[in-house]
Write a structure and sequence with these properties.
This protein is of the alpha/beta class. The protein is built from three helices and ten strands. The longest helix is centred in the last third of the chain and has 16 residues.
């Protein structure tokens, strides 16, 4: 049963030994107007503006390489400092790209794409699952992850793009 915990976030008194009891928020971003590549940089920028570290977990090494390039070049005026889990000193990176579970940089936020499963190791603040609304398999995976997050008593939010591409909280 969840109860009010430190920082006004619920936690479980009946959690199994080793279970992180401070409940991490799980946010679902339903991509309907833009791609992961269109959406991810702005979300990571907001994460870094809070002083939080992030891990971005994707499904393949090819996708990781593409996002690695994107985060350096997505804006002519800016870039997001980051690294990949295969590089030396991954643990000191403010943003880390990986295909594996885990938080080598002790991230506050974990971004999940490509139907990556909910984590075995939870970040301190938030999990953000981004999924393609045009992909039936991605939708089914997101629904299953939603149910799992609720079963684990995590606070969940569902965000969807409107016709103009703006994000609005639906649940």
């Amino acid at each position: 049963m969840p109860v009010e915990g430190p920082g006004r976030r619920p936690f479980r008194l009946d959690a199994p030994l080793g279970y992180k009891t401070d409940m991490v928020e799980v946010w679902f971003y339903h991509l309907t107007r833009g791609s992961l590549e269109d959406t991810l940089p702005a979300l990571v920028e907001r994460t870094r503006a809070r002083g939080w570290k992030a891990v971005i977990r994707v499904g393949t090494a090819e996708r990781m390489a593409a996002l690695d390039d994107l985060l350096w070049t997505y804006d002519d005026e800016s870039f997001l400092a980051h690294g990949t889990a295969s590089e030396p000193d991954a643990q000191v990176q403010p943003v880390l790209l990986t295909t594996a579970d885990g938080l080598p940089n002790d991230a506050d936020v974990l971004f999940l794409a490509d139907s990556a499963p909910l984590p075995g190791e939870w970040p301190r603040e938030r999990v953000i699952m981004l999924f393609d609304g045009a992909d039936p398999d991605a939708l089914e995976h997101a629904r299953a992850a939603w149910k799992e997050a609720i079963t684990l008593v995590h606070p969940v939010q569902y965000w969807q793009q409107d016709d103009s591409g703006r994000w609005s909280r639906k649940a």
